[in-house]
Amino acid sequence: MKASVILTALLAATLAAPLSAATEAEAAMGREIVKKNADSIVTIELVVNGGAGGRGGRGSSEQKIEVNGTVIAPNGLTVTSLASIDPRVGRGRGSENSDSEFKEVKLRLADNTEIPAMVVLKDAELDVAFIAPLAGTGAAKTYPYLNLEDSGKAEVLGTYFDMTRLPKNMQRVPVIQTVSVLGLIEKPRRLIITTDQTLGCPVFDMQGKPLGIALAYLSNNTAIQIVVVPSEDIVEMAKQAANVKAVPMPVGPVDVAK
Predict the structure, then answer these.
(1) What is the spatial distance between Cα 29 and Cα 206, in angstroms, rounded to a whole number?
(2) Can you give the pLDDT at residue 172?
(3) What's the whole-model pTM score?
């Protein structure tokens, strides 16, 4: 089963949950979150070569992919789910995804500006990928971004907000909805389970602070659940990505799982 099929099934399961009407206070905060943070959610467009395929390892498979990501630094550093951009992740391949090649990577901003970029760091185990503008192109620009260091706190059955951006055929409109925290996984690392999540996008608390970014949870190298990874964990991983200069290289992105 293709990773896209697995992730689509996970999304369908979460979207099947009934939505309750927001209170006026929730609606007001939701509108404020969209106004303040919508531009930090961008579209990532790329071509991925999934590596050797077919009998005997001959041939390769390329496909165009368009997903959402969240800009988390003024220099344009963007985080997203690795499983959403690499078909080899989440379908039982695990760290074997390391030979996937990303080409023609670009960030499409809220104003439709295209910024050439590259995948600078990935971790198949944690399902995280960082994309940065290429040096000499959009790297000198200051980007609208979500400050993950000013993070919120998750409590079971609290009210929160899931924000994303719709695809091209829906005008890439930013949308938001109220969600609830169903549970908290504490070991081996903290993960937040909510009633709805969108890969590569943030979840906010009632004060407008981000709880974290939605990524895929892998078990036995297979994507089984979408979870919210806390902001502080994303910040720590982003420090590694910040040390990788975004210049075209003949080798693939850094794989921190090795």
Answers:
(1) 7
(2) 96
(3) 0.85
What residue type is assigned to position 80 of the chain?
A: T
Tokens of 256: 């921190």
Tell me which residue has tokens 């009407």.
21
* Distance separating alpha carbons of residues 127 and 139, to the nearest angstrom: 25
Per-residue exposure over 103-128, b if at least 16 CB sit within 10 Å of its own CB, e if not: eebbbbbbeeeebbbbbbbbbbebbb
Question: Quick one: pLDDT band at residue 247, thresholds 50, 70, 90?
Answer: confident
Alpha-carbon span 46 to 61, nearest angstrom: 14
Query: Is there a contact between 210 and 79 (Cβ–Cβ < 8 Å)?
Result: no
SS3 content of the chain, % helix, strand, coil (to 5): 20, 40, 40
9-38 pLDDT per residue, tens: 454 444 444 556 789 999 999 999 999 999
Closest CA to 17 of 178, 219, 176, 160: 178
Residues 157-211: tens digit of each pLDDT: 999 999 999 999 999 999 999 999 999 999 999 999 999 889 999 999 999 999 9
The CA-based angle 252-257-258, given to 5 degrees, is 75
The tokens describing 32, both together, are 């404020």
User: Which residues are bridge partners to 119 per DSSP?
Assistant: 131
Predicted local distance difference test score (pLDDT) of residue 121: 95
Among the listed residues 167, 228, 195, 214, the one whose alpha carbon sits nearest the alpha carbon of residue 14 = 195
The 8-class DSSP code of residue 189 comes to S
Contacts 24+ apart (CB under 8 A), 15-22: 15/196, 17/195, 17/196, 19/177, 19/178, 20/178, 22/178
Task: List the one residue out of 150, 54, 71 whose CA is nearest residue 107.
Answer: 71
